[in-house]
Specification:
- The protein is an alpha/beta fold.
- It has 9 helices and 5 strands; from the N terminus they run βαβαβαβαβααααα.
- A 5-stranded parallel β-sheet has the order 2-1-3-4-5, with helices on both faces.
- Helix 6 crosses helix 8.
- The radius of gyration is 23 Å and the shape is elongated.
Length: about 220
């Protein structure tokens, strides 16, 4: 199944700027959607496709930076390319610290904007792949027994077999048996793989702690 066509959302209160950017991006065969304000953008249902936002820093009401923070607070992190008519180092630093892909001052080069858009789309494309991998990892993790989750959590914490046995109150042989089964279920080729999986889950706020450890060993 082919990937959906990437979408570039342009949010700027100046219609001439929106249409100018649209004309430029369409020469690169990119799909473009235009919005006069962040509210207008939020009112449209998001499509399941790689995307990015070209966002004016200075907008009536809340600023582009405010909208960036609003999206992040809602758990949405689309790659953002800021454009502004004013060179503002502070704003640039704040935007980049918050994850912006680029901060361009008008008049910017068309090529610079195109390159920033392509980089942003690639970033979102990779995020979609990573999300799929983490979702699959989480599904596998949820199929583990409580004991296997416990062994995985202790392994990811960096404990050695003897330490895990002491912490779990089981023998080292039993630890190895559970860990081997855990690796099989998680499709981990090595302990390093298992640790990376655990770290990926934790980075998404998924707890590795088992609900209980009252299962038979």
């Amino acid at each position: 199944m082919s990937e959906p066509a990437p979408i570039v959302a342009v949010i700027d209160d100046d219609i001439s700027v929106r249409e100018s950017i649209q004309g430029l991006l369409e020469t690169a065969a990119l799909r473009v959607e235009l919005f006069a304000s962040p509210r207008e953008y939020l009112q449209q249902a998001r499509k399941d496709a790689p995307n990015c936002i070209i966002l004016d820093v200075r907008l009536p009401g809340s600023s582009g930076l405010d909208f960036q923070r609003e999206l992040a607070a809602a758990g949405s992190h689309p790659p953002i390319i800021f454009i502004t008519g004013y060179a503002d180092v502070y704003m640039s630093v704040q935007a980049m610290k918050a994850g912006a892909v680029e901060f361009l001052t008008k008049p910017y080069r068309d090529q610079a904007l195109l390159e920033a858009v392509l980089a942003a789309i690639q970033k979102d494309r990779q995020r979609r792949v990573d999300d799929h991998v983490v979702a699959d990892t989480q599904r596998r993790f949820e199929e583990l027994t409580s004991r296997e989750r416990e062994i995985m959590a202790l392994t990811v914490s960096g404990l050695q077999t003897k330490q895990i046995a002491g912490a779990a109150g089981i023998s080292e042989v039993t630890v190895r048996v559970h860990r081997r089964e855990t690796m099989r279920k998680m499709n981990a080729r090595s302990l390093a793989d298992l640790v990376k999986m655990g770290e990926a889950l934790r980075s998404r706020g998924i707890s590795l702690k088992a609900d209980s450890t009252g299962e038979e060993e």
